[in-house]
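Below is how a single chain appears once it has passed through the pipeline. First comes the sequence as given, then the structure the pipeline wrote out for it. We keep one example in the README because the format questions we get most often are answered faster by looking than by reading.
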Amino acid sequence: MEAEIFERNRARLEGIAYGMLGSVMEAEDVVQDAYLRWAEVEIAEIESPPAFLTTVTTRLAIDRLRSAQKRRELYVGPWLPEPIVSSFEPDPADVVVEFQTLSMSAMSALERLNPVERAVLLLRDVFDLDYSEVADIVDKSPSNVRQIAKRARDHAGDLQRARVPTDVEALLISRYLDAVGRGDVEGLAEIFAEDVLLVPDGGGNARAARHTLHGSLRVARHLIGVSPQAPDGMEVRVVRVNGEPSIMGIFEGRAIGIVTLEIREQMVTAVRASLNPEKLAHVRSER
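Resulting structure:
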């Protein structure tokens, strides 16, 4: 009985934990800790199991994030969340859980917030809890939570991305691959917004720039310049990462890099390169 109730809520709890931490493995650890707490309570005394589990998971994630933020201060280069990879084309057989709706751009925006702000915005704007529910979870008054949510939105912006037509995504991916393959800097720059940014995450464990790059020509030159570093025989696969169109490189049966494109108004506004092998260890290359 207890396990069945928990499993019915697992996807939601994983979504909250991943949204808070940006790490698949750490999210799994938090959800496992939540299960251990759940196993110790008398279910008959719990008025609302989903509310109880959401509260426990969120508070565990807040504590974990406070520790993680200290570690991230020592992180080498820009930090990106661990990617959640799915098929590029919609597949009815895929089980799409809630945390896959949080784009890489939204996850990156959440990094600007402190742990409580992040929890409030995530629970209110993504998981649609009302202010009184969020207040109980973070142990603050509803009026205080409203103020926190407003401040968080001012810093992070809108977490809900506008849907981009699949044909537009496919065209930009095709033009990206063609330009990189031909070494065409100007052709690549043409699909980029003028103020496009490149966020490379190698974490000191892979060859990558150690700072964010800005500007269409500068980003294009860099991407063309590093493309020869790809190993011979690398397979290139078009996928989605957290719902956004992406290119995954696979070598010797494992993912070695993922480039995710943020698209707005039919232009690429950001390129996020996940290269840290520690963050790609969970990615299944057989997709």
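Strands lie at 85-87, 192-201, 213-214, 235-241, 244-251, 254-264, 267-274.

See the next section for the split statistics.
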